Structure formats: structure tokens, C-alpha cells
Amino acid sequence: LPHLGECYLFHGTTPEAVSAIQQQGFDCKIGRGLFGQGCYFAESPSKSDQYCSSSNNSYCMFLSRVLLGDAHIEIDSAEDIVRPPCKDHEDYECRCAGPRFDSVIALTKQQDPRAFLDRFREFIVYDNALCYPEFVIYYERK
Questions:
Q1: CA–CA distance, 132 with 142 (Å, rounded to integer)
Q2: Do residues 138 and 54 make contact, with C-beta atoms less than 8 angstroms apart?
Q3: Which residues, 6 or more positions from 61, have their beta carbon under 8 angstroms from its beta carbon?
Q4: CA angle, residues 130, 112, 66, in degrees to nearest 5
Q5: Contacts of 122 (CB under 8 A, 6+ apart)
Q6: Residues 23, 26, 27, 30, CA torsion sign
């Protein structure tokens, strides 16, 4: 088997969204951010906590199983994309029939001084089949 790049990553959400995500999985068409329309994950729970909202000081996030596959490394934001770039031209807008990357990993300035992000890397997949909400974590901020 080829290397799937399977890892556990965090996904912050609202208490209201937990039930739908548990029943239906993630929906990459709903998420939108600095790297387009996709499902966003982080290796740091502190980063995912930024996307959580409270219900009586109770917060939640998922520890998710994510397949990154062959990831494109990104240093710039790309807000209008809906899929990873093509491998042959590393272009998000490319319409060629060539293969595409499976995901995008957005680097921070620590990994590359030219990078757009300051502190936490982001991991973005654009296909619902590449991410699974394995564990839900409920917590309180102290």
C-alpha cells in the first residue's frame, strides 16, 4: 500500500455541531478558511480551541483520524480554492487531467519565514472520505 499519511488531528467546533458530525461525519463543503473550502485540522488543541464556542463554559473538539496522503506544502493563503493543486503544475486553478495532491499543509513562519501563518500549522482536506471524527472531547477552560 502507498503511504497514506494517516494521523490524528484536532478539529474545533460548536456544541451544536457535535451531533451532526457524529452522525454524518465531516462535510468539507461547509468549512471555509484561509485555504479555501475544506475540512480544517490542527496538530495542536490550542489552535483548534480557537474555533470552539461555549455552551455554559463547556467546549468541544474532535480528535480525528485524517488521511493526508500526498500533501501539498503551502506558505500563502488561498481563500478561493475548493481542492488541492495539481501535482504536475502545483496550481489550484489547473484544469489538466493530471493527478492532484490529496491535502494541503499550511506552514508557519517557524517552518518557512515566507509563510503566511504565524503560530500553528493547518491541515486541510477537501474530500469527506479523508477524515473521520473518531473521538469527541468535552472540556472547560480554566
A1: 29
A2: no
A3: 10, 11, 12, 13, 45, 48, 49, 52, 136, 137, 139
A4: 10
A5: 33, 34, 35, 40, 41, 42, 47, 105, 106
A6: positive
CA dist., res. 38 & res. 33, Å (int): 8
pLDDT (tens digit, 9 = 90+) per residue, 57-66? 889 999 999 9
Q: What are phi and psi of 128, to 5 degrees?
A: -55, -30
Q: 29-49: buried (b, 16+ CB within 10 Å) or exposed (e) per residue?
A: eebeeebbbbbbbbeeeebbe
First CA to last CA distance, the chain: 44
Q: Is the pLDDT of residue 4 over 80?
A: no
**pTM score over 0.85:** yes
Interatomic CA distance for residues 112 and 81, integer angstroms = 22
